[in-house]
Task: structure prediction
Amino acid sequence: MSPPSTPRVGARGRPPRVTEERLRQAILEIEGEVPTMASLARQLGVGVATLYSHVRGQDELRRLAADAVFDAWELPPAPPGTHWAHWVLDYARDARRMAERYPAVHGARPLAGGQLRYVERVLAQLTAFGMSGGEAIRTFGHMALLVLGVGAQIEATRLEEARAGLEIWGLFQDALSNHPGELPVLTALERGGVPDPDASFDELVWFTLIGIARRRGEVLPTRVPRSASA
Result:
């Protein structure tokens, strides 16, 4: 999703008029941080006082930001023959990227406005794959937890900093070395990170999808596919 660019404001003439469309457009252009009244005013080319006549404060701005992001969020394509699990994996990858690009989605009020419309689109696609309503809701819930709970908070690149001051790290290393089975992701993290920073996230998602498939009476390969076309 590439938000349209803001029209340039000329040196002369009246300040740009603040409309709902321009508000949403400017919000989408503020990436990597939650928009503030000051940053949005700068993006619009107006004063903060002018913006306050259209947006009552930061709480309303957070709602507007979430609505703008969720309404503009394009789901991955699902060509004929796409397996549901491959699509969900692509969806989770995309959702993680969007959550990093637009942190406003983290504080969005559950099932309101644009988020509700977005959830409707996701569930519609999952049911189009033949999932029941309950299966679709559970699958969506699992992915939301991984993206916003695990994927957005645990980064392999930050592990070295996190473990430096943790006395529990030694206990974790003992448990890891004494575990009878293979734990390739955790082992790679303990050794200083994985080559692909998304590898651990992909494996968590795919492991979850294997469990969902098992409940549906299906068997998925253990290897993580690259994309929905794999």
The two ends are 22 Å apart (CA to CA). DSSP finds eleven helices and no strands in the chain. Residues 133-151 form the longest helix (19 residues). Confidence is low (pLDDT under 50) at residues 4-11, 150-169.
